[in-house]
Design goal:
The protein has 218 residues and is α/β, with parallel strands linked by helices. The radius of gyration is 19 Å and the shape is elongated. Helix 1 crosses helix 5. It folds into two domains: 113 residues, Response regulator (Rossmann fold), CATH 3.40.50; 97 residues, Orthogonal Bundle (Arc Repressor Mutant, subunit A), CATH 1.10.10.10. Helix content is 36%, strand content 23%. It is built from eight helices and 13 strands.
């Protein structure tokens, strides 16, 4: 799972990044609101936003998030103890609010509560499984090398096993918001299917891709 962190205090930003990376999350950090806004479509599972940052404040970014990412968790962090700011953050749809200074463990626990990987393994059959925690695919107990895009594709199914991953979703999450072509998507899927058991990935004509109904989370 990837998390966007917007915090203009570079030292605090670095501490947050290290703490969350140690829990297995992928972290992208930003010190500027405009830069964070441009990255919103890059397939994040959670947003951590400081209110007072250069150019565009965290509450304004929260409003943008709620337009296109209605259910994605957002945690607001701020040294501003103004009750109106706290109230406005909740009114605009934040899931939690932390006042600075705070214990980094407190933030980590809030993230873990909001961004839960329910199971560790994606089990394709008795020999093949993908490890969500360590981001590795194993076949007959031997690690199978995956590209970054192949890893991101498999992690689309961490919380919603048998949903259809649409082309738009693949472009947003796997290609991290970069425009791509159906040819590129199909080529990536073709390569990944060769690394998995037969029919591990199912083509849903005209929509996208899903996993075989026999695939399990465990």
């Amino acid at each position: 799972m990837k998390i966007l962190v917007l915090e203009d205090n570079e030292r605090l930003c670095s501490v947050i990044k290290q703490a969350l990376q140690s829990e297995g999350y992928g972290i992208d950090t930003f010190y500027d609101g405009d830069q964070a806004l441009e990255a919103l479509g890059n397939g994040y599972s959670c947003f951590i936003l400081d209110i007072n940052v250069p150019n565009l404040d965290g509450i304004s970014i929260l409003e943008y998030i709620r337009i296109n990412h209605a259910t994605t968790p957002v945690i607001i962090i701020s040294s501003n103890h103004d009750l109106e700011k706290v109230q406005k953050s909740y009114e605009k749809g934040c899931d939690d609010y932390l006042k600075k200074p705070f214990y980094i463990l407190e933030l980590v626990q809030k993230v873990k509560k909001l961004c839960i990987i329910q199971k560790q393994y994606l089990q394709f059959d008795e020999n093949y499984k993908y490890d969500f925690i360590n981001h590795k695919l194993f076949g007959d107990n031997i690690e199978i090398e995956l590209t970054k895009k192949e890893i991101l594709f498999l992690e689309l199914f961490s919380n919603n096993l048998h949903h259809v991953a649409t082309y738009t979703e693949l472009e947003e999450y796997v290609w991290e918001g970069e425009e791509t072509s159906l040819v590129n998507i199909r080529s990536m899927i073709k390569r990944l299917r060769k690394k998995l058991p037969n029919d591990g990935i199912v083509i849903v004509k005209g929509l996208g891709y899903s996993l075989n109904k026999n695939v399990k989370l465990c």
